[in-house]
């Protein structure tokens, strides 16, 4: 009887913990700025939430400013003309790649060189808008 009660309590605790996790529909806001000194967009992804958020590493710039096959998720819009980020094969991760973790009320930053956007002049005009759509994913331990 005690063993069954203990197992039931553990199961209820697990179900309660899982049920309290937030849904991914609440996406964090983006902030970006031109950085003429470095010839790149400086991109900052902020997490306004009180819980950790994660994005797929394949949808966030690596240290070189590359994103894995990214022309659909990263581009610059200049007066309705689209300049996609160059598609790059940044490799394969057996078993899946690591996620980019964003702590509660924290942020991550990266640079996207202007030269990586196909046909975009550097520096881009003031009317340029950076569109970046990282893919949020559940944070797993």
Describe the structure concisely for a colleague.
By secondary structure, the chain is of the alpha+beta class.
For the structure shown, list the relevant keywords:
alpha+beta; 9 strands; 3-stranded antiparallel β-sheet; globular; 141 residues; disordered N terminus; 1 helix
DSSP, total strands:
9
Decide which structural class fits the backbone.
alpha+beta
Strand content: 25-35%
User: What's the Cα radius of gyration?
Assistant: 20 Å
Q: Which H/E pattern describes the elements? A: HEEEEEEEEE
Can you walk through the features of this model?
- The strands form three sheets. The chain has a three-stranded antiparallel sheet, with no helix packed on it. Strands 6-3-9 form a three-stranded antiparallel sheet, with no helix packed on it. It has a three-stranded antiparallel sheet with strand order 5-4-8, with no helix packed on it.
- It has one helix spanning 2-19, and strands spanning 30-35, 40-46, 53-56, 74-78, 81-84, 99-102, 107-113, 129-132, 136-137.
- It is globular.
- The model is unreliable at 2-19 (pLDDT under 50).
- Helices cover 13% and strands 30% of the residues.
């Amino acid at each position: 009887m005690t063993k069954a009660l203990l197992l039931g309590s553990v199961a209820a605790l697990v179900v309660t913990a899982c049920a309290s996790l937030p849904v991914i529909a609440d996406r964090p806001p983006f902030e970006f700025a031109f950085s003429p000194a470095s010839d790149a967009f400086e991109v900052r992804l902020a997490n306004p939430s009180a819980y950790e958020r994660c994005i797929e590493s394949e949808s966030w710039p690596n240290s070189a400013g590359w994103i894995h096959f990214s022309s659909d998720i990263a581009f610059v819009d200049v007066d309705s003309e689209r300049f996609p980020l160059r598609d790059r094969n940044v490799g394969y991760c057996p078993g899946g790649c690591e996620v980019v973790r964003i702590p509660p009320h924290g942020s991550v930053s990266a640079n996207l060189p202007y030269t990586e956007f196909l046909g975009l002049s550097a520096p881009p005009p003031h009317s340029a808008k950076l569109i970046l759509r990282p893919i949020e994913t559940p944070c797993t331990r």
